[in-house]
Amino acid sequence: MSAPPKARLTWRSILLGLLLIPPNCYWIVQMERVRKGPYVTSISLFANALFVLVLLALVNAAIARRYPKRALSPAELLVTYSMVALASGLCGMDFVQVLMQIIGYAAFFARPENAWADLILPHLPKWLTVQDTEALKGYYSGYSSLYQWSNLRAWMVPALAWTGFAAVLLWIMLCMNVVFRQQWMARERLTFPIVVLPLELVTPGLPLFRNRLMWAGFVPAFVISLLNGLALFYPSLPHLNVGQYDFLQRILQSKPWYAVGWTPVTFYPFCIGLCFLLPVDLLFSCWFFYFYWKAQKVLSNAMAWDATPRFPFIDQQVFGALIGLAIALIWTSRGYLRQVWLAARGKPSELSNLQEAVSYRAAITSIGIGVVLLVLFCRLAGMSWGIAIGFMLLYLLISFVVTRIRAELGPPVHDFHGVSPDLMIPSALGTVGARPQDLSMISLLYWFNRAYRSHPMPVQMEGLKMAQMTSLDSRGMVKALVLAGIVGMVASIWAFLHLGYSLGTAGKFWSGYSYGTQIFGRLQSQITAPVPPQMMERWAMLFGLVCCTGLSAMRVRYLWWPFHPIGYTISGSWSMNLVWMPMLIAWVLKGSILKWGGLRLYRTLLPFFLGLILGDIMMGCLWSLIGIALGVETYSFWGA
Questions:
Q1: Does a structural domain hold residue 300?
Q2: Residues 6+ apart with CB under 8 A from 540
Q3: Is 9 left (phi over 0), alpha (psi -120 to 50) or beta?
Q4: For the CA atoms of 251, 256, 259, 263, what is the dihedral angle to 10 degrees?
Q5: What is the pLDDT of residues 495-540, one digit of tens each?
Q6: Residue 221 located in a structural domain
Q7: Residues 6+ positions from 39 with CB-CB distance below 8 Å
């Protein structure tokens, strides 16, 4: 019996996605930089993209009632959603928003006191940075216009150069996703929790909206956000504090317990709903290892080990764990990768008859050529060959692991602050004798390495997963993602520049240049006060790697083993402070439901938790639109 025909990509879904990308990028910059949140791209399920999908689904359902043939199919809706989501990731907190804060910062804020004109500017490539201080005045102070030729000319070359760099990077990621798609979706059958709600929203007839349990979750979450928003305008109204109340630090004020640090308790409704979609064992591992890292801090303080700065080097341990997890994943996939290699060479393989979006030969070739192009780009910018190769390979390994974490665990957050190659390479190798050109280029690459919350690679893989679930030809999804990547980069840069020249990134922006302060302050310190290789930090990296590979080995060998290496890896991140309590709540609820009611009860109650997500996000996004329209501060449902 032949397989059912694949749905084909339609131009109307592409056109709709392209039309929605620029206003979405504008909206994101307004929320995350001009205003005080919500920070919609710091969570795995981008709230703005989900908001757009809900509106599209409702309008499409109304059209389907009167003009069934004109309504969009589920596959078309998901193509549009995937395009908006990918562009949102590019415009997010850890991608273009960082780029736009650093490429003009050094030139504009160079002063005789900091000596940046001699110390830093000579080592920054002019074709990658903006050094026209006259054009930058309006960008930082506002009351100007991007659309003056002098301003456009100053930004044109750096914007085009970085867009080309990002296009190659996105294509490499997409090809990596194509290579691992079959392994993760068909062989391991990973759950992809983040796509559950979008798939429910495009089901014909919208059965989710006719489910009473969904409304039982939607209404309280919606009302909490509504009341908290109204309480900002009318303080006499009641409000419910669902985020960031730290009572533990108030209680533990004696040595060594005060070393536990910031441990906020949160009850974000959308976060509890998202966590309910996660596997129970991974939920347990996340909150368990969160307190494992806290215990390390307490023990270090008790033994006075924290007299050494940054001890116990949690960031370095997490970096080692990321590399260990990458090694473990590649090792356990070695049989599959052998089949991919055979198929790419045109030899008999189990994968020979598969129709991938990009052939395995083309994907592997593209990855190789793409890495060479990125390394050449860095070399032209002044970086040495070895540093450029090491940096790019480390970044792609981290990207691979982040994508796997999203596919298997689907956590609400995965920031990995402080574990990027721009920090770990100087930490491991030291900066004594380092070339200023290397340090400067590493600093410029900070724009896509500050953290990994809005990482585009998991969004691409989830797009391929949704294409599989809706029987869409994956080649069509790849074309849509390529277009969204290019247009998304251009629209993101435009949105930041447009608002910057209008409002002033150092004027009316809530946070418009702080990343530049961070990175060039660090670069100045690296050049003027170099440090040798940090041996203890190297050992911490090795310790994290050994622990993670050990957990992976135990996980493979013993089915009953409760500790998951992904939980160990992700729980040391800063954002885990905000979600450990929702994860604990979801672990108790989901574990109890599965134990006493089984899968049947779980599936029955699932709409309630999807309602929590929808209610919180819909009202939260509405508040942001109200604030932009009226020019007032409004409630932020997520303040990461």
A1: no
A2: 312, 313, 316, 317, 320
A3: beta
A4: -30
A5: 999 999 999 999 889 888 999 999 999 999 999 999 999 999 999 9
A6: no
A7: 31, 32, 93, 636, 638, 639, 640
Q: 638 to each of 35, 244, 271, how far by Cα in Å?
A: 13, 10, 9
With tokens 């929590």, the residue in question is 612
pLDDT score at 241: 87
In a domain, 580, yes or no: no
**Tokens 């692991």 correspond to what residue?**
401
How many Cα atoms are found within 13 Å in the side-chain-facing hemisphere of 636? Answer: 18
Please tell me the distance from the alpha carbon of residue 640 to that of residue 625, in angstroms, as a whole number.
Answer: 19
- The predicted-structure confidence for 324-363, as pLDDT tens digits, reads as follows 999 999 999 999 999 999 999 988 888 877 888 899 999 9
The domain of 458 spans 11-207+310-560+620-630
- How far apart CA 467 and CA 208 sit, in angstroms, is 20
DSSP letters spanning 207-252: GGGG-HHHHHHHHHHHHHHHHHHHHHH-TTS-----S-B--HHHH-
Q: How far apart are CA 385 and CA 617, in angstroms?
A: 46
Q: Please give the Cα distance from 332 to 327 (Å, whole number).
A: 9
52 Cβ contact partners less than 8 Å away, ≥ 6 residues apart: 20, 24, 81, 84
Distance CA 73, CA 70 (A): 9
Cα distance between residue 510 and residue 413, in whole Å:
22
What is the residue type of 605? Answer: L
Cα–Cα distance, 51 to 512 (Å, whole number): 25
Per-block mean pLDDT, blocks of 10 residues, the chain (640 long): 67 97 98 93 97 98 93 96 98 96 96 94 97 96 96 98 98 97 94 96 95 98 96 91 80 87 93 96 96 96 91 96 96 95 90 86 97 98 97 98 96 94 95 95 96 97 96 94 98 98 93 92 95 95 97 91 94 93 97 95 97 98 96 88
Beta bridge partners of 245: 265
Helices and strands (H and E) in the chain: how many: 26, 0
| CB contact set of 298 (below 8 Å; sequence gap of 6+) | 256, 257, 259, 260
Question: Could you report how far apart the first and last alpha carbons of the chain are, in Å?
Answer: 51
Measured distance CA(467)–CA(308) in Å, rounded: 51
Residue that the structure tokens 């900002």 belong to:
232
Helix or strand (DSSP H, E) at 454:
none
Measured between alpha carbons, how far is 242 from 291 in angstroms, rounded to an integer? Answer: 21
Element (H, E) at 115: none
Q: Give DSSP secondary structure letters for 506-547.
A: III-SSSSHHHHHHHHHHHHHHHS-----HHHHHHHHHHHHH
Residues 6+ apart with CB under 8 A from 390: 421, 425
* Contact partners, residue 71, CB within 8 Å, separation at least 6: 60, 61, 63, 64
Three-class SS of residue 561? Answer: coil
Structure tokens at 103: 């490429």
What is the number of domains present in the chain? 1
Query: How many C-beta atoms surround the C-beta of residue 350 within 10 A?
Result: 15
Determine contact, residues 446/98, Cβ cutoff 8 Å. yes
**Given this model, what pLDDT does residue 1 score?**
40
Please enumerate in sequence order all residues whose Cβ is within 8 A of that of 243, keeping only pairs 6 or more positions apart, or say none: 264, 266, 267, 268, 578, 638, 639
Query: Considering the domain boundaries, does residue 273 fall inside one?
Result: no
